[in-house]
Amino acid sequence: MKSEADRALSLAASLGENTAARDAFAARDRDGLQAMLGPVFKELKDRHGVRQLQFHLAPATSFLRVHRPEKFGDDLSSFRFTVVEVNRTQKPVFGIENGVEGLGIRGVVPVFKDQKPIGSVEIGLSIDQFFFDRLKTATGADVALYVNSPKGLTVHAKTFANDPPVAPETLATALQGTTQIGTAA
C-alpha cells in the first residue's frame, strides 16, 4: 500500500507543479482546468488505475473533480482529513480515506503560485476488487478487507473464492481496536 500511496503522491505533485495547471487553478478557471486535464485524467485512469483527480480550495472545498466535473463546491472537511491537513500544514499527505467516490488511497499535495498557497490537488486510487486482484497477482496471497458499516463488519473486497475464514470473535476483537493477523486454514 505504501508504494501505491507514493505513486498517488508523485502523480499529484507532478500536476501541482505543472505551470499551466497551476495558473488555471490560481485564476479559478474551472473550465480551463477541466479542458486541460480531462485528457490527462483519461490517460492516468487507463494506464495507472487512477480513479479520481481533484483540486480543493482551503480548507477542504471541492473546486474541480476532473473525474466528475459537474460536482463541485461541496465542503469535504468533515470526512476528508488528508485535504484539511495539507491545506493546514502546506505539506504533502497520503492516507486511506472513504470519500464521495468511495474508499481509496489518496495522495494530496499543496499547490503554490508565487510561493503562496492556492489550494491542493489530489490523486485517488481505489481500494476495490481490481486493487485486490492485482495484489494477489503480485504476492500470491489471498486477502480480504473488512470495513465497519451500519451492518457491522462487511467484506469490502476479497480474493478468496468463498467468504474469508474469519471467526466472529476475531472480528469483534478487531472492532475493539486490537490488530488481528492470521492465516487461512
UniProtKB/TrEMBL annotation:
Pfam families: dCache_3. InterPro entries: dCache_3, Sensor-like_sf. Residues 2-156 form the Double Cache domain. SUPFAM superfamilies: Sensory domain-like. This is Double Cache domain-containing protein.
